[in-house]
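---------- Forwarded message ----------

FYI, see the Glycerol kinase record below. Original note from H. follows.
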Amino acid sequence: MSDKFVAAIDQGTTSSRCIIFNQDGAPVAVDQREHRQIFPKPGWVEHDATEIWSKVQAVVAGAIAKAGLRADQLSALGITNQRETTVLWDRKTGKPVHNAIVWQDTRTAALCTELGGADGQDRFRDRTGLPLASYFAGPKVAWLLDNQPGLRERAEAGEIAFGTIDSWLIWNLTGATDGGVHVTDVTNAGRTMLMNLETLQWDQSILDAMNVPAAVLPEIRSSSEVYGTAHGQVAGVPVASALGDQHAALFGQTCFGVGDAKNTYGTGSFLLLNTGQRPVPSENGLLTTMAYQLDGEPPTYCLEGSIAITGALVQWFRDQLGIIGEAAEIETLAAGVEDNGGAYIVPAFSGLFAPYWRSDARGVVAGLTRYVTKGHLARAVLEATSWQTREVVDAMYQDSGVHITSLKVDGGMTANNLLMQHQADVLGVPVIRPVVAETTCLGAAYAAGLATGVWSDLDELSSHWKQDAVWTPQMDEEKREKEFHNWRKAVERSFGWLEEGD
């Protein structure tokens, strides 16, 4: 076994996880724990940031123990995180002033409409690459400052710190109230709607428009550099990377070339296309965002298609409807029928993200007849992920002119062979899964290892990538386009469910 090890913390939407990798990029130990999902009102989603920090400490200790290592044998520690989720905390006590507001939360929809004014969703797009939507962190900060009594005054006085989850973890890892480092990286800062994509700095005009005081903001740094040294259970280990989860997956999939694309299938799904060292504006509902930035080097940009609900639809099928007992059972149930029986499920539970950005949409089941069984519905649940991905790939071509020739995939849903085959069928290109499917953690480890000399360069990282499985298209063009047409009809029927005042 290699004698250098890097730990990666993956603080996701539903769980905290730590994976330790050796110098060959192979995982040697993993520990994972779920954390609570808090739903105070319809459309509101929160996390307890204190609970998250506790779970992170537990999984780091668990992974080190399972690997049979001591903390001082770690060369570096990297972080990847659920993006846009917003934490405000007291700099003196270290305690959050409110539950974290999760990326899925829609409470800021009205605020975003108000901020857009006559310019609408595109008011800040030329500087941030993002549409005004409840998805992003900036409006969440503004909402908290406006709705927690006395908080704005404390924030303006410098008593309050804001961060996405990476900032919260780095601050705690590096000492918290005892000198904790308050930083974020370009990938996470780029998802606040407060960072200028060209300058990679906070944009004062947007801060003024949202009424967010600069005193709460972390310093923006690259994705791969030593931010500080850990305290506590991993004392002395360099904290050396931060990447939003989708950017980390792109990095872990070694999508370093222009035109390389990956899709991560988790709670939602996120398809990123590397566009090189220039931001490509989107006119088709995509996000122009950071891919990553290495220390001392120019940034790399990408186009992103963000799909709110994919794996979460399977959870809904399991937990709310009770049709299956375990998530993995959906493949067996869906395989029991030849097709979807004419049924389509559009999971607009909290609106639609790319390429529509319709916060007024809500979920629909379309095409129901008495012929439809739970097996057909199971297949429709899986196919919803494939069709949403197809819409994003089409939009990427329209924006960039790049036809993807294959799609690298990762995340838990890639274990579902029926889904992966359907994904290849509806895209018309091969779908490829790597040996290390948990590429989010791997990307964070790679970036931390680059910063600390575990790996020398991107070429060395690329040499570690290995194919595990490939699915090739088997659906004929006529059937593909007919079913896509039906999917689009179902999507249109989800529009306009929420009306002004709802």
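H. also flagged this: The chain is about 35% helix and 20% strand.
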